[in-house]
Amino acid sequence: MGGFEKPVDDLIRMTYNEEKEGIELDDEEKATDDKRADEELEVLGSIGYKNAKEPYFKFPDAIAKVNEMCKTLC
Fold first, then answer.
1. Which of 18, 48, 17, 19 is nearest to 30 (CA)?
2. What is the residue-wise DSSP string for the chain?
């Protein structure tokens, strides 16, 4: 992410409803989308931005840690 020339705009959240033709969130989904976004980040573990259970790691540092763990296991 640090390789971009300027800050990246936030992505637009889209619907999970596969039966709709569009991708926009309806009012019912907007009410639950903040919780869903937090859950999506929590799955990322320590590289998730809003995960309070583990300390935050910068993405390149997290990848280096994964690489180191793989080498250790092999």
1. 17
2. -TTSSSPPPPPPP----TT-SS----HHHHHHHHHHHHHHHHHTGGGSTT--SS----HHHHHHHHHHHHHHH-
From CA 12, how far away is CA 67, in angstroms rounded?
31
- Residue at token pair 């869903």: 36
Alpha-carbon span 10 to 43, nearest angstrom: 19
- The model's pTM: 0.47
For 3-30, what is each residue's pLDDT tens digit? 667 777 888 888 888 888 889 988 888 8
Q: Which residues contact 11 (CB under 8 A, 6 or more apart)?
A: none
